[in-house]
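TICKET: design request
STATUS: open
ATTACHED STRUCTURE:
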């Protein structure tokens, strides 16, 4: 059985959506000191590089999506119960209003890593200080399964980017790009291009291909006195391998507006991976071009392909996970969260006007609905 785990990154805000760099204050109140990670209400609360973001992690991988959602929801509810009068949490792939002077870098444990990152790449950029990802971890059985799973997820990356695009605004401006997080993310370590590999990695022929890539990255880091960063997690492609907790980690996805929407993405991924005869593009140049279209347009540019994938996913999903998939169908037909945010902000006159509704979706764990649309669940 393939286990699934996730990591969810939410921005910390005042009630008027001013970003607050106070993750250390929150973690300090819970743990008694500014811990990197601490148990809280059944989940693990963790820090991120930027102090305006806090991470929610399930206590253990789950066997299915409903089990995963049930393990995470008490943590979010517990946080809002304890801290909700002081802080408003917001999902999305980037904070749509944040300017770089409003955030700060974590300065407690693991500071040596951040100092190295700053010296080599420079942290004062949106690609470090204003990105929020939904990370999905999928367990593998052995090396052969790792390679097979990696290659199949790799071929799905453009479609997953399209469905999850949720970062159309930067510093309050509509950029015309649906996924700005990946735009900045793929540039934040440009000094060593292989670290990010333009989001879509090369196809693996064997595990040795991946290990060889890691060694090349480590070699370049050592030449820049970046020995502290020579760890498996330094790879920052849209898909990486974690050997310390045997799983592949999908990193290309924007955080969604609520946990239920994240779970819909998880169910979509798992259903597609269960389709053994699914024919997928493998040419990297084609995948890069599809990913570019997904970043620019969300689901709008890939709708026929996404409809075909959805039909396969819906047939393949088990009953308990199929219940999540209608949200994916809506994102395919009506647009990714980014596309819908852009339209609603235009109606409201600004992005600020729709943020209370997006934050309320996280509180209620109900997918955000544009004015005039019907709820999915």
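STATUS: resolved
RESOLUTION: sequence designed for all positions
ATTACHED SEQUENCE:
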């Amino acid at each position: 059985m393939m286990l699934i785990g996730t990591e969810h990154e939410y921005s910390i805000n005042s009630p008027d959506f001013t970003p607050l760099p106070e993750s250390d204050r929150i973690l300090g109140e819970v743990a008694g000191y500014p811990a990197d990670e601490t148990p809280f209400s059944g989940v693990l609360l963790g820090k991120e590089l930027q102090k305006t973001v806090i991470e929610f992690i399930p206590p253990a991988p789950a066997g299915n999506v409903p089990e995963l959602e049930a393990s995470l929801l008490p943590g979010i509810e517990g946080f809002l119960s304890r801290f909700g009068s002081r802080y408003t949490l917001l999902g999305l792939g980037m904070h749509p209003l944040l300017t770089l002077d409003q955030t700060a870098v974590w300065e407690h444990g693991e500071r040596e890593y951040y100092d190295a990152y700053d010296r080599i790449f420079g942290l004062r950029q949106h690609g470090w200080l204003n990105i929020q990802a939904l990370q999905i971890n999928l367990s593998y059985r052995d090396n052969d399964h790792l390679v097979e799973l990696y290659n199949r997820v790799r071929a799905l990356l453009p479609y997953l980017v399209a469905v999850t695009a949720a970062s159309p605004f930067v510093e309050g401006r509509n950029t015309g790009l649906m996924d700005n997080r990946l735009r900045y993310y793929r540039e934040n370590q440009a000094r060593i291009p292989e670290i990010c590999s333009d989001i879509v990695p090369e196809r693996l022929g064997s595990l040795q291909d991946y290990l060889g890539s890691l060694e090349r990255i480590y070699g370049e880091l050592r030449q820049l006195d970046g020995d502290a960063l020579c760890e498996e997690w330094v790879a920052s492609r849209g898909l990486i391998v974690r050997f310390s907790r045997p799983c592949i980690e999908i990193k290309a996805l924007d955080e969604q507006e609520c946990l239920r929407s994240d779970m819909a993405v998880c169910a979509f991924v798992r259903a597609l991976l269960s389709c053994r005869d699914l024919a997928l593009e493998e040419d990297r140049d084609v995948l890069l071009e599809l990913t570019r279209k997904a970043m620019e347009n969300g689901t709008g540019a890939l709708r026929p392909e996404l409809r075909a994938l959805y039909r396969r996913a819906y047939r393949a999903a088990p009953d308990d996970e199929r219940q999540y998939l209608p949200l994916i169908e809506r994102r395919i037909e009506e647009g990714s969260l980014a596309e819908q945010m852009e339209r609603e902000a235009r109606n409201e006159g600004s992005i600020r006007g729709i943020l209370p509704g997006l934050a309320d979706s996280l509180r209620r764990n109900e997918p955000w609905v544009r004015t005039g649309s019907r709820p999915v669940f």
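CLOSING REMARK: The first strand starts at residue 4 and ends at 13. The CA atoms of residues 97 and 171 lie 4 Å apart.
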